[in-house]
């Protein structure tokens, strides 16, 4: 008998992120997602650094440099610059770069929750959190 694994779904502020031909996956308990798909939905720009295994991510208030195979990433935001530790190193699969979802979303001041039973990750951006708090306080 064959068992089918449930697909992993990722939502950003209630909207499903479509990943196309490459899908998120779990590796050692860490949700790995295609970097470009998530970053572009967040509103960030992804740029590979020529002749290296590094990728730069540019957001309004955040700059990140991730290196394939490295568990450390450079993060610069309004709080300063830090060398962050990823739950798992960035990796390439089917020609796409994957990073831990929690690392990338938290770098952009977003919250992420994981629903294990349904295999759904929910990202809530800081602005959306503020909007919900204002609605709840009325």
Q: Measured on Cα atoms, how large is the radius of gyration?
A: 15 Å
* Separation of the first and last Cα atoms: 53 Å
The largest β sheet comes out as: 5 strands, antiparallel
What is the average per-residue confidence, as pLDDT, rounded to a whole number?
88
Q: Percent range for helical residues? A: 10-25%
What structural class results from the helix and strand content? Answer: alpha+beta
- CATH fold-type name: Copper Amine Oxidase, Chain A, domain 1
Low-confidence stretches: none
Q: How many domains is the backbone divided into?
A: 1
The string of secondary-structure elements, in order, is EEEEHEEEEEEEHEEH
Strand tally, please?
A: 13
CATH superfamily: Copper amine oxidase-like, N-terminal domain
Strand content: 35-45%
> What is the molecular shape?
globular
Written overview of the protein:
19% of the residues lie in helices and 42% in strands. It has one domain: Copper amine oxidase-like, N-terminal domain (Copper Amine Oxidase, Chain A, domain 1), CATH 3.30.457. The longest helix is centred in the last third of the chain and has 11 residues, at 126-136. It has a 5-stranded antiparallel β-sheet, covered by helices on one side. The protein has a 4-stranded mixed β-sheet with strand order 2-1-13-12. It has 138 residues and is of the alpha+beta class.
């Amino acid at each position: 008998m064959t068992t089918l694994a449930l697909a992993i779904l990722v939502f950003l502020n209630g909207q499903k992120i479509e990943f196309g031909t490459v899908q998120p996956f779990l590796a050692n308990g860490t949700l790995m997602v295609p970097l470009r798909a998530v970053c572009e939905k967040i509103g960030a720009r992804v740029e590979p650094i020529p002749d290296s295994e590094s990728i730069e991510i540019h957001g309004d208030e955040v700059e990140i440099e991730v290196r394939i195979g490295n568990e450390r990433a450079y993060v610069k935001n309004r709080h300063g610059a830090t060398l962050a530790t990823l739950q798992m190193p960035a990796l390439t699969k089917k020609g796409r770069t994957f990073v831990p979802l929690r690392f990338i979303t938290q770098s952009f001041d977003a919250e992420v929750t994981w629903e294990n039973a349904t295999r759904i990750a929910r990202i809530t951006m800081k602005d959306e959190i503020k909007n919900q708090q204002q609605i709840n306080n009325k």
